[in-house]
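Appendix B. Chain record.
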Amino acid sequence: FVVKESYREGREEARRKKDMGRIGPIRPMGPITSIPKRTNMNKQELLRTAALIPLATQSDLAEHAAKRDEMVAKLNTIMLDRPDIVELVGENNLTLMQDNHANHARFVESYLQNPNPEMLVETVLWVFRSYRSRGFQPPYWSAQLNNWVELLKKELSPDGYKPVYPLYHWMIVNLPVFTLLSDEAFDAADNFVPSHA
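Structure tokens predicted for this chain:
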């Protein structure tokens, strides 16, 4: 399904106005050329494709484990050096961002050794909803994940990189879907009217 330009512009403008009071102007994540329409179909497709991510053994991930803390520190430096970092993560969220990077690296290792597609999808959705409610913007995940991939390529040998990349590829490819699903959660919260019985 191709998103019409006017619809996308209207949606971005509404989101921008809603978020302006929190963190200032938002840089768009980039063009989203297609977004599946139904939430159930989105989640089912996420689950189906997550099941295709190859399993990795502890020995496959030994290099990643040995360099994990060093790579987290390097990613933190890369992200903190961005001039738009406050726009991406919100005011007073730099420590939370760094904690997220450390948790992310540990999660990647754990997941690849013990894959559970439902847990993966629900965890990523929880992260999107939880961090967005604190002021993180969708372009943050694009910046973070793409920087992770570049860092992994640079720091790991080809044998160390190969078992880790498919999970990153899956997350990056599905960023528009996770954004859409977390948008729906925000829209539902915005439209919630409590009953006064």
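Further analysis of this model is presented in Appendix C.
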